Amino acid sequence: MSAFYREKVLSVQHWTDTLFSFRATRDSGFRFQNGQFAMIGLEVEGRPLLRAYSMASANHEEELEFFSIKVQDGPLTSKLQKIREGDTILVGRKATGTLITDNLIPGKRLMLLSTGTGLAPFASLIKDPEVYDRYDQILLVHGCRQVSELAYGEELVAKLRDDELFGPLLSEKLSYYPTVTREPFRNRGRITDLITSNQLFTDLHQGPLDIETDRIMMCGSPAMLEELKVLFETRGFKEGSGNTPGHFVIEKAFVER
């Protein structure tokens, strides 16, 4: 158990029957880059029960925040969804992950493409002043099945727009595009289709996909990630890594989950 910090749950918010977020204390020794994840979980019968979670909080914040699904028969989330203020969670001491800006070739527009709780690492990244220094435009896309599932992201962006520091940055550089697939909403459709048809860019009054200027980060459902990877690679985009920066990066930690 020495590989983990023991952190105290400070608050829990249930957004829908299937989504919740929670905040916890943060050990002063825990370091991470915005966009990374750590193994977090609970101690069950004396042993750690863990899965990978992106930090939704930025690395300059004093508390940790996580955004999670609820899986009724999930080994961890069936228990984690019942946590309350004052409970203890385990946080792995080492953060890692591919969704960091150094893994991308320099560009002008950063596209953050997410579905479901794949929004979490981008919640961290849009609170990173360095990201706004690196890019002229930041496009945050969040795809869900139902409108209610967008609530966490909509509140996140609304709070940042009211923030003294980030408000001016967001108004100048951030475009937020929530979209749903199963209910009426102002934006409808799967992310892949919205990019292929150029509907995404038309709605935002921005130029179409451009390999010279666009850099992409992706996190979400396995089907979405695979479709987008094929879409970008057929247009000449190359995947980046810690060894070789590229045009796009994918968070693989959640692909098999």
From TrEMBL:
It catalyses: 2 reduced [2Fe-2S]-[ferredoxin] + NADP(+) + H(+) = 2 oxidized [2Fe-2S]-[ferredoxin] + NADPH. Keywords: FAD, Flavoprotein, NADP, Nucleotide-binding, Oxidoreductase. It comes from the Bacteria. Its cofactor is FAD. CDD domains: FNR1. The keyword Nucleotide-binding applies. One of its GO terms (molecular function) is ferredoxin-NADP+ reductase activity. Belongs to the ferredoxin--NADP reductase type 1 family. It comes from Bradyrhizobium uaiense. The lineage of its organism: Bacteria, Pseudomonadati, Pseudomonadota, Alphaproteobacteria, Hyphomicrobiales. GO terms for biological process: cellular response to oxidative stress; heme catabolic process. Its EC number is 1.18.1.2. The keyword Zinc-finger does not apply. This is ferredoxin--NADP(+) reductase.
